[in-house]
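Researcher: Next entry in the queue.
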Amino acid sequence: MEFDQERPLPSQQAILAIREALSSYLERLAESIGTSVHSRASQDVKAMLGDPVDVGTWEDVGLLAAAADGGSAIYSLSSASLGVAVAISLQLRVGGSVIRGPARSQVVPEDPSEAVKMTPQEVDFVLAPLREAMVAEAAMSAVRGELGEKPEIVILDGPLIPPKPVRLAHRATSHSRLAARAVSRYLRAHSELIRASEEEGVTLVGFVKRPRAHYLSALANVEEVALSDSAIASEVLQRVGQMAPGDPITLYERELELVIGEEQIREAIDPGSISFAFLRTSRRRPPYRIDFGPIHEPFGGPADVAAYLVATADAEGIPLAVVKADESVKVSRKIATDAYFESLRRMLAKASRSAPDVRRVLQLLTPMYGE
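Model: Structure for this entry, 371 residues:
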């Protein structure tokens, strides 16, 4: 991340040049997407979704729902790089109050002596799977009723299918020990979350707001399709309340091999425990991907869950529980910057400002600005 700072505005010529370059590029990008959407290969992938189904209406929007989300920030300092992750779970009834669980936070790397050896990119390899692990752990506390009454549904703001940042961290060669530890923590938390959902009788889903994966192309074994799943689903789902496929795609052994190349990650998932489909919840936005875990009463199946998500969605198509969880942990640039300098002030308050070593250390802890 970058830190906010008063800076001179770029020249008008620079702004106009950027706009012109972007305008030209976006025209070519739109043309490329349009060509790809209507290609024969894309039609083959689109066929995997079949005809969309209308999920119908869900009347009981007042059931108890929980959601979990996480946020993070990376700090690039003069002499070190570090990151911080935070996660929280909450539960609510539509029209009722929000009950939040305790926020969990952790700094990466845990050992400060490692921070001076790492770049921001290397920190991110560790931070991404750690953040996902903490979200799963926060969701598990909700599933087990630790926020009070046990909810009927728990929604992750994110996927149940292990996301790309986790898989990239698994491949990381620099600081592989730290990345491997974070990936292992994620896989353990992920497995325990699905198991707890099954044992506790709580429905579990992942709401993926930016489904940029290419799972449909992989499952159709069509390598030449460059479009994301979201672009393919947008062509199929035309109306709010439509889901495709009507029977979500279940990840059995063959499907797991096609969509997850990393054996360690694939083997941590029980075949058949996760399925996914696409759901249009808003006229403004492309369809979202819904990852289904265990489904329990009062939901009779995926269509009921989808109907509940549509019924509680805002104008952007995001379910209320997810909106509230996202608001609770959104680490904006300003929030991250303010938190850093407040922490720095607290540290300095414990030491003598006149001490030469404190002044030297302070210089080394100064954030780096610019690109």
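Model: The first strand starts at residue 53 and ends at 54.
Researcher: Noted, moving on.
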